[in-house]
Specification:
alpha+beta, Immunoglobulin-like, 4-stranded mixed sheet, about 50% helix, rod-shaped
Amino acid sequence: MNDTQHSEATLLRRYLLGQNNVDERSAVEHRLMTDQQYLDELARAEEELIDEYARGDLAPDQKGRFEALFLNVPERREKIAFAQAFNRYLARHAIVPAEKSPERIPSVWWRRAIIGLSAAAVLLLALASVFFYWKMAQVRTQLVNSELQRVVSEKNAETLSDQLIEQQKHNQELQQEIASLRDTTASPDPSLSTLRLNSGWTRGGGQLPTTRLSPSTKRLRLDLTLDPDATLHSSYQAQLQTVDGGSLWSSKKLLARTKGARSLISVNVPASVLTAGDFRIALNGLGANGGSEQVATYYFRILTK
């Protein structure tokens, strides 16, 4: 056996004992699915492991791993039991050469009969061994194929799960876009445009709430929705900023009003300070003592006609 064959045999032996890392195990399984000769080498490596275990030649750490992985599979338990029984039979029926007795020398006919019977026994044992190993190789090949089918099925299930997660994410983005379109309501006053914003939206978190301003628009009313668990303040300050934090406009002494189960704060932004682009509103809560506390940040997009 050359160095390459020895290395491959060691790798397959580690694979059967569950000693490979993730990369080695993936490489072995990929090659098993495409290389029939490699599959036969795996079957031979498994035979050698079973024979070593039956003879008691495995190291203690390998014996523990072998029993944990092999004794839990009924087909493998049957092979191990057969190998152990075969080794016990060979141990009990070992041929011990008889010492020649100078007083009683067998006749020529008797010697020929013994030689013929011995040859027949050896031939029968050889045929039985060939049949046994052929049957074991067949069963092991079926077992390896079943294991490969299980691995392929698990990978297909993981792929379907990833596709489902991606579809759910896409559906959430569509729902956010629909909600944004619903919140962009037409106002009876052509000079006023309205847009509802929810807190908690982050950049990259889906469709950005968007409204389109016409040349006749004078004001943009932003209805800022407060989180249910947000602490209410006596008044609020809203600051219009670029997405990079540059201040463009601000309004103080804003009051929250209740609408259904949530609280809203309306901010009327002059259209003159808005251009096409992305903006954010930084909302701070003001205390009676003059202190300020950041409450939420809202992002939106302006389009122009």
